């Protein structure tokens, strides 16, 4: 097995084990020993790739973001020249974020509480910047295909949508928060804003 394949398999095992543990125990209660036991990997194999569980938690966040991007780009690459299907992929992701049991929301809130750790702070900054960058790319892709007006400022709008989505995710993590403005409302707002310019 090649080194890159081994790295991908190890990363995937760590991600799957960690996501299972987050759903079962929450972020705070998980130890590296839990991850070792659940993944079936040795400590040496794990510490070859990460220094602590927070780094694996960052991977969980990044994985979801990249999955949404891949789903969006897959729709575009299949020749879809309309707004609906690619936007539906983004909308599905936003709706999933509105679930209080969403693992990535739990990870996000946990990591926000660890922002004093320079490694976590840097990872959060990179995650935010990647979120904005992908939002901008999705808008620019729509503009290239003529389904989003050129008058939409991709930089500002991408940042706005990232802020709004993060707010939705934080709210979903607040126990018994009154949710009047739902994920579907946010998706409709984004759709309206992008199609009208």
TrEMBL record:
Keywords: DNA-binding. Residues 8-68 form the HTH tetR-type domain. Residues 31-50 bind DNA. It holds the Pfam family TetR_N. Signal peptide: none annotated. Coiled coil: none annotated. SUPFAM superfamilies: Homeodomain-like, Tetracyclin repressor-like, C-terminal domain. The keyword Transcription does not apply. The keyword DNA-binding applies. PANTHER family: HTH-TYPE TRANSCRIPTIONAL REGULATOR PKSA, HTH-TYPE TRANSCRIPTIONAL REGULATOR RUTR. This is TetR/AcrR family transcriptional regulator. It comes from Cohnella hashimotonis.
């Amino acid at each position: 097995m090649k080194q890159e394949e081994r790295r991908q398999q190890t990363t995937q095992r760590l991600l799957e084990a960690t996501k299972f543990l987050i759903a079962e125990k929450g972020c705070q209660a998980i130890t590296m020993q839990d991850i070792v036991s659940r993944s079936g990997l040795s400590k040496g194999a794990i510490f070859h790739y990460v220094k602590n569980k927070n780094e694996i938690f960052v991977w969980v966040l990044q994985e979801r973001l990249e999955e949404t991007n891949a789903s969006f780009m897959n729709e575009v690459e299949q020749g879809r020249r309309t707004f609906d299907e690619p936007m539906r992929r983004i909308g599905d992701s936003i709706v999933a974020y509105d679930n209080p049991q969403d693992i990535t929301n739990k990870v996000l809130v946990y990591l926000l509480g660890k922002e004093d750790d320079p490694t976590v702070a840097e990872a959060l900054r990179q995650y935010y910047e990647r979120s904005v960058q992908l939002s901008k790319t999705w808008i620019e892709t729509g503009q290239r295909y003529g389904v989003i007006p050129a008058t939409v400022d991709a930089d500002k709008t991408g940042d706005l949508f990232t802020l709004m989505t993060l707010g939705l995710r934080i709210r979903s993590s607040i126990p018994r928060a009154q949710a009047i403005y739902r994920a579907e409302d946010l998706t409709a707002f984004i759709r309206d804003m992008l199609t009208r310019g």
